[in-house]
Amino acid sequence: MRNSTENFYSDLPANGKSLAGLLADESSFAEIPLSWHVVITDIRGSTQAVTSGQHQDVNLIATGSIVTVLNIAFGMNITVPFFFGGDGATFIIPPQLIDKVMRALLLYRSNTLSNFGLDLRTGTVAVAKIYEEGHRIYLAKFKRSALLSIPVVLGSGLNYAEKIIKGDDYLLSGHTEEDTELDLTGMQCRWDQIAPPDNKEEIVTLLVIAVDDGRQPEVFTKVMQKLDELYGSPEIRQPISITKLRYKTTFSRLGTEMRAKMGRIKWPQLLKTWFTSLYGSIYFSTRKGKVYLNSLVELSDTLVIDGKINTVISGSKLQREALQEFLDGMESGGEIIYGIHISGASVMSCYVRDLKDDHIHFVDGSDGGYTQAARVIKAKLAK
Fold first, then answer.
1. Which residues is 121 bridged to in the sheet?
2. Mean pLDDT, rounded, for 309-325
3. Closest among 221, 315, 285 to 23, alpha carbons compared
4. Cβ atoms of residues 104 and 68 within 8 Å
């Protein structure tokens, strides 16, 4: 096991081989140190919130929890692996960060409850506790492109932590709220719903769970290879395209963003932000702006592997029907349980620390794609 240091994730080498090659290579994965912690944020009743039309608020709040944690980590020069889930997020946190992160998330939880009427559960489980219960978390770093590396997790540890936290056992972690203002610098939600790229018909949000945790590498490889076969490479099935991006900077949208950040609307700052955002359409037509848009597509977070497959892709109805037929076969064979949601657009929220090379964009299917796909899985498990 690697040394339990704050630089555990930073020190992991980024693996540039194919995803299938990575999943098959045990040596690329390392166990999370015992002293680390799993932190999960999750909006209680997110399905009902999405159904009632709050899907954009749900995505924004989930993004805000990521920005809260990453700004703290950035200030302490620590890199932490995280996973966007549409209605929440998962983090693997070193001991040096855990107290500060939990206090900030509890403050953020109070803010979202008072401003949006949505309860963001914020829980933590020690990795040592997860291991004691017979679960494991194996982590690798996958280099998806020249600009983006993502964490990849195998094992049942994160799924176990999620069950505990959503069961309320760890909802109250013993921490108190941070006594300073939230730092959500860089959080943005200024893009309108994004239609599928040209020659694509729909957006597919897919969740896949391996029934046997010990067969995750084999099962996930099988699913990802079928996606490649039916839809083409990740670049071809990318749901975000520059030609479909539309900047949306209404007072309502900016006000929602400000309430998530500050807990209230500060009108002088809102006006300043609105005037500044008007420059966006001009900036995106410049050389630097075009470079930013190209990197935005490359830095869109459309694949998450956190002990299950979470992905958003674009394609045709015929491709999706072929995919469902394949997945139905795997499911009836006892290999997987899957949930799928079909929509006519994707949605994107962003964390922009700078416009050059420090930004990431969180993608979900419109109308709460991840939340709806998870609902399908819950219904199957209930049977």
1. 42
2. 98
3. 221
4. yes
